[in-house]
Amino acid sequence: MNVLDLGFIAGIQSLQHRESARSIDDLIANVANAFVDYPLESLDRTFVTLQSCLLAMVDVAGDNIYKIPHLSKTKIARQGLLPRNVVCPLELLDKGRALLSSVDAVELDRTFAKELADLQELNELSSALESIALDDVSQYDVVVALNDLGI
Fold first, then answer.
1. Where are the domains of the chain?
2. Is 40 left (phi over 0), alpha (psi -120 to 50) or beta?
3. How far apart are CA 75 and CA 81, in angstroms?
4. Residue 133 phi/psi, 5° resolution?
5. What pLDDT is attached to residue 135?
6. 84 in helix, strand or coil?
Protein backbone atom coordinates (compact mmCIF):
# COMPACT_ATOMS: atom_id res chain seq x y z
CA MET A 1 0.00 0.00 0.00
CA ASN A 2 1.41 3.34 -1.02
CA VAL A 3 0.07 6.74 -0.05
CA LEU A 4 1.36 8.11 -3.34
CA ASP A 5 -1.11 5.94 -5.23
CA LEU A 6 -4.05 7.38 -3.31
CA GLY A 7 -3.93 10.85 -4.74
CA PHE A 8 -0.70 12.59 -3.87
CA ILE A 9 1.12 11.81 -7.14
CA ALA A 10 -1.95 12.67 -9.24
CA GLY A 11 -2.26 15.91 -7.32
CA ILE A 12 1.31 17.06 -7.81
CA GLN A 13 1.29 15.86 -11.45
CA SER A 14 -1.72 18.07 -12.05
CA LEU A 15 0.04 21.02 -10.43
CA GLN A 16 3.36 20.52 -12.25
CA HIS A 17 1.65 20.17 -15.66
CA ARG A 18 0.37 23.74 -15.37
CA GLU A 19 3.90 24.91 -16.16
CA SER A 20 5.71 23.86 -19.30
CA ALA A 21 9.13 22.28 -18.96
CA ARG A 22 11.75 22.77 -21.64
CA SER A 23 14.46 20.83 -19.84
CA ILE A 24 14.84 18.20 -17.15
CA ASP A 25 15.81 20.97 -14.72
CA ASP A 26 12.53 22.78 -15.50
CA LEU A 27 10.62 19.55 -14.92
CA ILE A 28 12.34 18.98 -11.57
CA ALA A 29 11.63 22.58 -10.55
CA ASN A 30 7.97 22.20 -11.59
CA VAL A 31 7.57 19.04 -9.51
CA ALA A 32 9.31 20.65 -6.52
CA ASN A 33 7.05 23.71 -6.80
CA ALA A 34 3.99 21.49 -7.11
CA PHE A 35 5.04 19.67 -3.95
CA VAL A 36 5.34 22.99 -2.09
CA ASP A 37 2.00 24.21 -3.49
CA TYR A 38 0.13 20.98 -2.70
CA PRO A 39 -2.57 21.78 -0.12
CA LEU A 40 -1.89 20.21 3.26
CA GLU A 41 -5.62 19.67 3.71
CA SER A 42 -5.60 17.37 0.68
CA LEU A 43 -2.65 15.50 2.10
CA ASP A 44 -4.49 15.08 5.42
CA ARG A 45 -7.45 13.54 3.59
CA THR A 46 -5.12 11.28 1.60
CA PHE A 47 -3.54 9.91 4.78
CA VAL A 48 -6.97 9.25 6.31
CA THR A 49 -7.83 7.36 3.11
CA LEU A 50 -4.58 5.37 3.41
CA GLN A 51 -5.41 4.37 6.97
CA SER A 52 -8.96 3.35 6.05
CA CYS A 53 -7.59 1.29 3.12
CA LEU A 54 -5.16 -0.47 5.45
CA LEU A 55 -8.06 -1.42 7.73
CA ALA A 56 -10.10 -2.59 4.74
CA MET A 57 -7.14 -4.72 3.63
CA VAL A 58 -6.95 -6.42 7.01
CA ASP A 59 -10.67 -7.15 6.74
CA VAL A 60 -10.11 -9.03 3.44
CA ALA A 61 -7.06 -10.93 4.72
CA GLY A 62 -4.50 -8.69 3.00
CA ASP A 63 -6.04 -8.92 -0.45
CA ASN A 64 -6.74 -5.89 -2.62
CA ILE A 65 -10.34 -6.75 -3.49
CA TYR A 66 -11.81 -4.09 -1.20
CA LYS A 67 -13.43 -0.84 -2.29
CA ILE A 68 -11.70 2.32 -1.15
CA PRO A 69 -13.75 3.50 1.83
CA HIS A 70 -15.42 6.88 1.35
CA LEU A 71 -15.67 8.70 4.63
CA SER A 72 -17.05 12.11 3.56
CA LYS A 73 -13.64 13.51 4.47
CA THR A 74 -14.15 16.90 2.80
CA LYS A 75 -17.40 17.48 4.66
CA ILE A 76 -15.90 16.33 7.96
CA ALA A 77 -12.81 18.49 7.36
CA ARG A 78 -14.99 21.57 6.72
CA GLN A 79 -16.48 21.01 10.15
CA GLY A 80 -12.98 20.78 11.61
CA LEU A 81 -13.57 17.17 12.65
CA LEU A 82 -11.25 15.23 10.32
CA PRO A 83 -9.36 12.78 12.54
CA ARG A 84 -5.58 12.50 12.31
CA ASN A 85 -5.91 8.73 12.72
CA VAL A 86 -8.62 6.23 11.84
CA VAL A 87 -9.71 4.06 14.75
CA CYS A 88 -9.29 0.32 14.28
CA PRO A 89 -12.25 -1.64 15.68
CA LEU A 90 -11.24 -4.26 18.25
CA GLU A 91 -12.77 -7.08 16.16
CA LEU A 92 -10.62 -6.06 13.19
CA LEU A 93 -7.51 -5.92 15.37
CA ASP A 94 -8.24 -9.44 16.59
CA LYS A 95 -8.81 -10.60 13.01
CA GLY A 96 -5.48 -9.10 11.95
CA ARG A 97 -3.64 -10.73 14.82
CA ALA A 98 -5.19 -14.10 13.99
CA LEU A 99 -4.14 -13.72 10.34
CA LEU A 100 -0.58 -12.84 11.32
CA SER A 101 -0.28 -15.75 13.72
CA SER A 102 -1.40 -18.18 11.01
CA VAL A 103 1.35 -17.11 8.58
CA ASP A 104 4.47 -19.22 8.04
CA ALA A 105 7.15 -16.51 8.23
CA VAL A 106 9.95 -18.81 7.05
CA GLU A 107 8.04 -19.72 3.88
CA LEU A 108 7.22 -16.06 3.26
CA ASP A 109 10.93 -15.22 3.59
CA ARG A 110 11.78 -17.91 1.01
CA THR A 111 9.11 -16.61 -1.37
CA PHE A 112 10.31 -13.04 -0.93
CA ALA A 113 13.95 -14.03 -1.53
CA LYS A 114 12.96 -15.79 -4.78
CA GLU A 115 10.88 -12.82 -5.95
CA LEU A 116 13.73 -10.45 -5.12
CA ALA A 117 16.24 -12.57 -7.06
CA ASP A 118 13.87 -12.65 -10.06
CA LEU A 119 13.42 -8.89 -9.93
CA GLN A 120 17.18 -8.34 -9.70
CA GLU A 121 17.66 -10.48 -12.82
CA LEU A 122 14.95 -8.49 -14.59
CA ASN A 123 16.64 -5.26 -13.52
CA GLU A 124 19.96 -6.45 -14.93
CA LEU A 125 18.26 -7.39 -18.21
CA SER A 126 16.55 -4.00 -18.35
CA SER A 127 19.85 -2.22 -17.77
CA ALA A 128 21.49 -4.26 -20.53
CA LEU A 129 18.66 -3.47 -22.92
CA GLU A 130 18.84 0.23 -22.09
CA SER A 131 22.53 0.25 -22.96
CA ILE A 132 21.84 -0.96 -26.51
CA ALA A 133 21.97 1.89 -28.99
CA LEU A 134 18.58 1.40 -30.63
CA ASP A 135 19.38 3.70 -33.52
CA ASP A 136 22.51 1.70 -34.37
CA VAL A 137 21.90 -0.19 -37.63
CA SER A 138 23.90 -3.16 -36.34
CA GLN A 139 21.34 -3.56 -33.54
CA TYR A 140 18.35 -3.69 -35.92
CA ASP A 141 17.81 -7.44 -35.43
CA VAL A 142 17.79 -6.98 -31.65
CA VAL A 143 15.20 -4.20 -31.94
CA VAL A 144 12.99 -6.34 -34.19
CA ALA A 145 13.24 -9.29 -31.77
CA LEU A 146 12.34 -7.06 -28.82
CA ASN A 147 9.38 -5.62 -30.72
CA ASP A 148 8.21 -9.14 -31.54
CA LEU A 149 8.33 -9.95 -27.83
CA GLY A 150 6.36 -6.83 -27.01
CA ILE A 151 9.27 -5.27 -25.13
1. 104-151
2. alpha
3. 9
4. -75, 105
5. 58
6. coil
